[in-house]
Amino acid sequence: MHLMLMPAGTSEDDGLIRAASNGDRSAFGELYVRYARMVHAILLARVPPGDAEDLVQEVFLSAMRQLRGLRTATSFKGWLGAIARNKAIDYFRESRPMAPLEDAPPSNTANPDAFLVMDRIRSLPEAYRETLVMRLVEGMTGPEIAERTGLTPESVRVNLCRGMKMLRELLEAK
Length: 174
Prior knowledge:
The protein is mainly α.
């Protein structure tokens, strides 16, 4: 199966996706640069922070191997997000010794409350969880989140607003 050609101007990523599917590693590298924060946020919303970094690499290696099977360039964002979500599911299927999040040693620069906040974010519904991590951890703007995920700017705004409200309520209840 080969990537279908899209009309010119469909997305600035189309050319990169086509080139990457034909083996251009620099084009794939540029896709990595554009989407690594989104993938990291999806993973961070589901797995311990120390493991999210390694899983980002696994997601992109998996995507590189499967890219030729992608039917349309426009489906790339959702497809990459699905690979990330599946990697997180696979992470929990494997038998790994895991320490509870509160037992994880904070790094020298981490605020111990950050672990509590991430724990609370992980308890939110998926749509809020992912957009909040993209905004609060990855520092992405609302328009960036919309562009990378394929959500409408209004959906991103609503998810962030509702997610922040729910997060505040959970943190105030602690």
